[in-house]
């Protein structure tokens, strides 16, 4: 018979929750438990389980994937006996409880905390009546209090697979590296810095993939763990029978991999292994950053309250079964960080919304975007909007970010935003202050200056790196009308600065970036030459077309050389000299190391700036980069309250749709207001 839940309502202000006591031991064939009701007001001793309802494992790096891999679902197709009745549960939860039955781990001691002598544990799927919407509406908003009040949180990563033991061995190797040796930047998994760091035997590609599969398990990427791990006083991590330290085995290692750049290299290699046939450059989510950012958030919250905007930004690196959880899963953290027990009225979950409506998620995202705008009193939220082509929520107003989709670009305005006084750009400087509209409608009323119109544009990052079409970028500057750029520099100077958003190694671009840019051009031409000669394995069938493209590219370079006489774009002979020098230099020489480092740095600057964007020229002659979906005829606006220019598309009746933020060389710091004045036009974004 199914279990019948009793009421959790109290008569005297009690805050009742249910907790589970596991009764089965060892290898009993059936899981048995009982449920007890406790009052949070009495500071009871209990633990919380943090886990994923659906498949906990990452399979794409497993042998035999996808045909020979057994996956699990989030279906409630398993059962636990509770006080003689049955409660349906998922397979992953069953695996966790079976492991607890064998080890009794939930009663282990935690330093400084009272013993959980009765082995009480709170598990959402069992302790909340999942068939009672009214109870769910009461209990889910209490989850922040439940996790804060717990003795500890047990993070269940799932059962063991073939990746676990090699991954645990790698973690031990990371932990054995002296801190002083970790102060290097690794740019190549075969370079001398890498070899010096790990010594012998080297870590093989398969071992790296084992580790990548382990840290890409679903638990690390689900949005609710932001709240569960953030609020936890203590976290123990379980993977099968293995007990791991959140601090030492995960956060310290994640910080090490982030500081050395190994995390990025690792994820890129793993993605290449999982998707060897992918023809285009793809965004690769780095779940190591999730582990790192959780502790960063805790440290920041100890100093000052976390803003809703910052939490919404963090949530985009995680995944959720329901898109609205990218908002709802953060509200408990906001309360804790802002030292309040209740949400303000405008942040309360609107229980009147129809969750089955097609526009439900869009309305939730719009509501909390308004909250963020009122909190920040500016339009920074517009910089969080991705290219329209990447959107999953089709009912979203164009100005509302899709919080359930990870960032495909590095927002120009900063993610999260820079500290006051450290902002790089302020395009609306000098304009009247942003006036916050009072209504929470789907339309956002703004004021600004329509500065210019897009006249032509070039290829995307994928077009340059995967189709070798550096010529598309070069042609745009080769046929640039006029000799001078509007801001006074040469158009070639504006060109190279625009392609890296005037940023090199995280700082404003200077002479070092200018000197390194020639290596980016030479490297792209060198790759095109290799592909045209059939040396690139994936393009042997396209050698004729690529040979034609190479000829066109060399002609364009000659045109630029005659027009500008500037080595920032080297001529054909200089490119040949660079490529020849790269091939003949001693790999251990200082000159080769310096050249490799410059190439890596300028390539990374280009990737960060240009990935998922494309170069364009406006009718007035300004060069910029913005979302790939931009088109001829789109307008460049500078809006009061927005730190960077925006590309908008007419939608009729004084309304516009946001295409995306833009870097436009020469108008990033108040120049538009000084050139045109402060007379603003009022429009609506829809």
UniProtKB/TrEMBL annotation:
Residues 46-228 form the Heterokaryon incompatibility domain. Pfam families: HET (PF06985), Het-6_barrel (PF26639). It comes from the Eukaryota. Transmembrane segments: none annotated. PANTHER family: ANKYRIN REPEAT DOMAIN-CONTAINING PROTEIN 39 HOMOLOG-RELATED, HET DOMAIN PROTEIN (AFU_ORTHOLOGUE AFUA_8G01020). This is Heterokaryon incompatibility domain-containing protein. The lineage of its organism: Eukaryota, Fungi, Dikarya, Ascomycota, Pezizomycotina.
